[in-house]
Amino acid sequence: MTARNMTTMSGFLLMGFSDNHELQILQALLFLLTYLLGSAGNFIIITITTLDPQLQSPMYYFLKQLSILDLSSLSVTVPQYVDSSLARSGYITYCQCMLQIFFFTAFAWSEMATLTVMSYDRYVAICLPLHYEVIMSPRKCTWAVAAVWLSGGISGTLYTASTLYIRFCGDKIIHQFFCDIPQLLKLSCSNDYFGVLGVSTFMSVMAFACFMGIAFSYGQIFSTVLRMPSAEGRSKVFSTCLPHLFVVSFFLSTGSCAYLKPTSDSPTALDLMFSIFYTVLPPTLNPVIYSLRNESLKRAIKKLLLSEEFVRKKCLFGF
Predict the structure, then answer these.
(1) Membrane-spanning regions, if any (predicted)?
(2) Residue 39 and residue 72: Cα distance in Å, rounded?
(3) CB within 8 Å of 85: residues ≥ 6 apart
(4) What is the DSSP letter of 130?
(5) What's the structural domain count of the chain?
(6) How far is 226 from 230, CA to CA, in rounded Å?
(7) C-alpha angle 7/13/15, rounded to 5°?
(8) Among 286, 219, 273, 215, which residue's Cα sits nearest to residue 246?
(9) pLDDT tens-digit readout, 270-299
(10) Model confidence pLDDT, tens digit, residues 20-45
(11) Which domain holds residue 217?
């Protein structure tokens, strides 16, 4: 589909990373492989934190919610790009684009909120252990997760509603592999994108508040850990906190670089790499990162993979 034809159509053309069809197929296959690996990893985390009775604490409850969000976030962008690349079209309808904006924004904000709740959970567990069961009771954890999903739905609705007011004209070409808001704003015919900028400013302030909450929690955590006399106790704390801190830092740094830097008419390879860093890699790597230093998770994964029922299913399906 040519750029000239796009001016008369309501949808958009996702340019992705290359105009070369052979490279598009290779990239689509790499994205598909990443999607399958990320989906499998998150599905394993969801399964073991649901079935294993030893992984029913609030920390693993929130980790399960994070894996659900990661799996959902991957499913919003990657399959559409793989399908359009293999079909050699790159075309995405206006409705599909708005749905991508809604779900991607909702899941991204929900992930930010979940990471904040997880840092607070670790703060209470380490700094206020005698009050942990009261503060992080099952009922309060359920309400926290409900608030996370509700806030994600509100943020997605605000972004999508403000985007619907934008009039697009000219060559509706998006130099990205999904409907990215900064790229869409460049296609606006006039100054009718101030609503989106207002929502972006509000969400940025809220994200900064979450970041400050996470920074406060970890400041208190490390202050408490350094006063621990037991090296084993410090190691146990670090095994649960360092993976979370790495995930938070990676998610925030790459997302900030992608959204705060000015968008260019001809995106560089670095711009496209940043888009992968905050959309595809975090949800794919999170299961691995959380499993590397967490002995309970590693034991539960081995128990799942080596269980008789799991082995029978592998033999049945020929894996």
Answers:
(1) 25-49, 101-120, 141-161, 193-216, 237-260, 272-292
(2) 9
(3) 16, 24, 25, 27, 28, 31
(4) G
(5) 1
(6) 10
(7) 130
(8) 286
(9) 667 777 877 888 888 888 887 766 777 878
(10) 667 778 888 888 999 999 999 899 89
(11) 3-317
